[in-house]
6-carboxy-5,6,7,8-tetrahydropterin synthase (Desulforamulus profundi), 129 residues
Amino acid sequence: MFELTVRSRFSAAHSLCGYPGDCARLHGHTWTVEVKVTGDKLDQLGMLVDFKDIKKQLSMIIDQLDHRFLNDIPGFREEGVNPTAENLAYYIYKTLEQAIAAIREGIRLKEISVWESPDAYATYREEFN
Ligand SMILES: Nc1nc2c(c(=O)[nH]1)N=C([C@H](O)[C@H](O)COP(=O)(O)OP(=O)(O)OP(=O)(O)O)CN2
Ligand SMILES: [Zn+2]
């Protein structure tokens, strides 16, 4: 099994409704997003999948989040979901899942991690048999 990892960053504000402290107020982070992709077979170039193809998918979702108020993004606002690191990891996973699998047969999105700061991050993954 091979595993590829690509990271990117974006800046965005959020507030955590109902949070018993400062994080309920408007504030921002430089978020880091990490994508992990797995699969068994390399292509004729010796790649599981071109990093560029993963970066392209990641940059599309990053463009939708960068310099935004995350609470206003559909998926958070409409559902009344707080844009925590956990919920962002889930949101990005669900947004990228199909597009990553479509890059090449036999590869799949393993997990998404989202850092709020260099010291704190959340990961979402789905278990497959
Ligand atoms: N499980 C989670 N806990 C917290 C989240 C989260 O998304 N998931 N988010 C927050 C707030 O967004 C908060 O801004 C982050 O707080 P913290 O990690 O403490 O980061 P700071 O930059 O404020 O660091 P300090 O060391 O506290 O100054 C809170 N919890
Ligand atoms: Zn925060």
About this structure: The chain has a mean pLDDT of 96. The CA atoms of residues 76 and 82 lie 6 Å apart. The pocket of LPXRUNBV (ligand 1) is lined by residues 16, 23, 27, 84-86, 116-117, 120, 122 (CB under 6 Å).
